[in-house]
Amino acid sequence: xxxxxxxxxxxxxxxxxxxxxxxxxxxxxxxxxxxxxxxxxxxxxxxxxxxxxxxxxxxxxxxxxxxxxxxxxxxxxxxxxxxxxxxxxxxxxxxxxxxxxxxxxxxxxxxxxxxxxxxxxxxxxxxxxxxxxxxxxxxxxxxxxxxxxxxxxxxxxxxxxxxxxxxxxxxxxxxxxxxxxxxxxxxxxxxxxxxxxxxxxxxxxxxxxxxxxx
Length: 214
Ligand code: AP5
Ligand code: MG
Ligand code: ZN
Prior knowledge:
By secondary structure, the protein is an alpha/beta fold. The chain has a domain at 2-26 and 79-115 and 173-212: P-loop containing nucleotide triphosphate hydrolases (Rossmann fold, 3-Layer(aba) Sandwich). It is built from 9 helices and 8 strands. The strands form 2 sheets. Strands 2-3-1-4-8 form a 5-stranded parallel β-sheet, with helices on both faces. A 3-stranded antiparallel β-sheet has the order 6-5-7. β5 (127-130) and β6 form a beta hairpin. The longest helix has 15 residues, at 165-179. It is globular and about 45 Å long. Zinc ion is lined by residues 130, 132-133, 135, 150, 152-153, 155.
């Protein structure tokens, strides 16, 4: 399965991707996660990306495209993958099409996870993530048993730097302007599917699997 996950910030792309990889043993390629790792490691790419991410703006396409191309060429991607948070604008979507053509790969689907705008702020301000295993929590909807500590591995939970209200507003604006048009882009290619991202995480996952025929 070669899949693109579309959805606004906080729609649950990462949450559903993590469940899909447990079921299907294919990698999740989250450009956000790759960029955050580069920022933490203080690589040149990370230094370039940091100022954009802090403002809630998109990192320049050239930075992201190089990163994705390298990742798609790796062995574990040959059977399939889930692209989470990429592509983010039409230029990236067109570049992805070219990349896939040159690798003789084709996308099976672009799945849009739809959540009303008014739900997103609380999801994002409440998000906490495990530093060690990446498990996601939410202090309002799915709090860990012990505050600040991962239920799965005991790791420390942290809050993302860009999950502050002002930055979230900017990310939502960028999504509406630059990323939402990709829904039409994939619809016109005939590979768009969509699910509601509201409600119980397990129920959403069941719908995701049914929609994708998994
Ligand atoms: P990125 O990391 O991709 O962030 P994003 O798109 O803003 O999406 P999020 O990760 O915030 O949301 P999500 O949909 O994964 O939701 P999650 O599952 O965590 O990008 C960050 C930045 O990196 C960008 O702003 C940009 O600067 C840069 N960047 C990344 N990719 C780029 C690209 N291709 N080009 C250029 N720049 C790029 O869930 C959110 C919360 O909700 C969690 O707490 C979760 O527990 C909770 N939750 C999930 N499902 C439910 C539910 N059903 N009910 C209640 N709560 C739920
Ligand atoms: Mg995410
Ligand atoms: Zn953990």
